[in-house]
């Protein structure tokens, strides 16, 4: 446990209980660096796609029905359950992969990332999934063409206030984190 500079009696403060067990700075660095090595948020993926020549294959791992409702432009479709059998044919050996599923309440992308890693691919999970792609105001493809909803002002606060600004980056959305 990391020592607190001013110890607080556990019954006196909820904050004290929060820090009853805390990682050392070194352990925290290792943990968060490891997460960044395997995760990317939708804004980072959108920026990489907008730059062109992203150097990775974006894979939508949702069902056929979900794919038909809408998907990230440029993504390829491979439901998670088919990755072990079809992943190598779809994505060349050693090619980097970014996977996504529905959203934060779904671990399908995590399972898909594991499958691609088992196939030998460098892989990242797009945290937030398709739900946050749409909520952050990025365009998506449907059977009728491109669609785009206004950004949910609660998902992304830019320097100009709620919802970022058109100059703030790909699709007018900026994390500013």
Automatic annotation (TrEMBL):
The highest taxon in the source lineage is Bacteria
Question: Where in this chain does the record put each Rhodanese domain?
Answer: 52-142
The record's annotation in InterPro entries points to: GlpE_sulfurtransferase, Rhodanese-like_dom, Rhodanese-like_dom_sf
Stored Pfam families? Rhodanese
Q: Which PANTHER family match?
A: FAD-DEPENDENT OXIDOREDUCTASE, PYRIDINE NUCLEOTIDE-DISULPHIDE OXIDOREDUCTASE
Q: What is this protein called?
A: Rhodanese-like domain-containing protein
């Amino acid at each position: 446990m990391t020592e607190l500079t001013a110890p607080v009696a556990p019954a006196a403060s909820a904050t004290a209980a929060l820090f009853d067990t805390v990682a050392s700075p070194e352990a925290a660095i290792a943990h968060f660096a490891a997460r960044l090595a395997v995760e990317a948020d939708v804004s980072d993926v959108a920026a990489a796609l907008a730059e062109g020549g992203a150097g990775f294959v974006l894979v939508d791992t949702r069902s056929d029905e979900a794919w038909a409702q809408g998907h990230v432009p440029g993504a390829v479709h491979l439901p998670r359950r088919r990755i072990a059998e079809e992943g190598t044919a779809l994505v060349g050996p050693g090619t980097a992969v970014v996977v996504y599923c529905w959203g934060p309440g779904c671990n399908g992308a995590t399972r898909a990332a594991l499958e691609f890693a088992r196939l030998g691919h460098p892989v990242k999970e797009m945290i937030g999934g398709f739900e946050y792609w749409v909520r952050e105001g990025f365009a998506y493809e449907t059977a009728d063409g491109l669609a785009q909803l206004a950004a949910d002002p609660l998902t992304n606060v830019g320097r100009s206030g709620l919802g970022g600004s058109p100059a703030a980056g790909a699709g007018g959305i900026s994390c500013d984190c």
